Amino acid sequence: MDVGMLEIPAELSARLRSAAGRQHVSGVTEVAPPQVKAQNTLILPLDIDSYPFSRYANATLKDGWCQPQGYSLQRPLTSLEPEDARTALEIHKLILRFSGDSDLSGWQEQILGNYIVEQGQTRPPLRDEILAQLAHTTWGRESEEVALRGWLLLAYCLSTFTPSPALDKPLLK
C-alpha cells in the first residue's frame, strides 16, 4: 500500500501548503547540555509482568486488534463515539503515513507528528486510541524503519499526554 496516497484532513493539508510556501527554518539553536547529576530512582512496578500488552489487546481491543497491519483501519481499536471514531480512522491514516512514507521531508514529518499529537491533546477520548494505534503499527513489524518511526511517534505522544489507567501498565510492559 502506498501510504503517500492516503488522504489527509483539510486542516493539515492547509498547514503543509502554508509551510511549503515559505522556507522552513528551524528556530532551534543547539547548546551544550547543563551538567546535572542524575538521580535515577525510577523502578518498574513490581506487578508489571501481570500486564502484558497482548492481554490488554485481547480483552479491550478485541476484534479491532485483528485488523491487518499496514492498511487503513476499518474501525477504531477502542470504543469511541461516532464522531471520535471517524477522527480516529483519519488519525490512523496519518500514523501510517508518518511511519511508512520515507519521502516526507523533516519539516513535513514535524508538522504531521505535531498534528497527530495535537489531536490527542485537544480530544482526550482519542488518547488511548492513538496510543493503541501506534502499538498496533509497531507490533511485530518486519520493517525496522517503520517500527522505529512508530516508536518515535509513540514517545512523542507519551511526552505530551498520558494513557488511561487501564492502558498505563500494559503499554509500559
What report would you give on this structure?
This protein has helices at 10-21, 53-65, 82-100, 106-122, 127-138, 144-158, 165-172. By secondary structure, it is mainly alpha-helical. The chain has a domain at 62-173: Alpha Horseshoe (Serine Threonine Protein Phosphatase 5, Tetratricopeptide repeat). The model has no long low-confidence stretch (mean pLDDT 86).
Question: Outline, from the CA principal axes?
Answer: globular
Helix content: 55-70%
CATH class wording of one domain: Mainly Alpha
Low-confidence stretches: none
**Count of helical stretches:** 7
SSE order: HHHHHHH
**Structural class, please?**
mainly alpha
Q: How confident is the prediction overall: mean pLDDT?
A: 86
Amino- and carboxy-terminal Cα gap: 30 Å
| CATH-derived topology of one domain | Serine Threonine Protein Phosphatase 5, Tetratricopeptide repeat
Strand content: under 5%
CATH architecture of one domain: Alpha Horseshoe
Radius of gyration: 17 Å
The major sheet is characterized as: none
Topology, number of strands? 0
- The fourth-level CATH homologous superfamily of one domain is MyTH4 domain
Pfam families: MyTH4
Protein name: MyTH4 domain-containing protein
InterPro entries: MyTH4_dom (IPR000857), MyTH4_dom_sf (IPR038185), Unconventional_Myosin_ATPase (IPR051567)
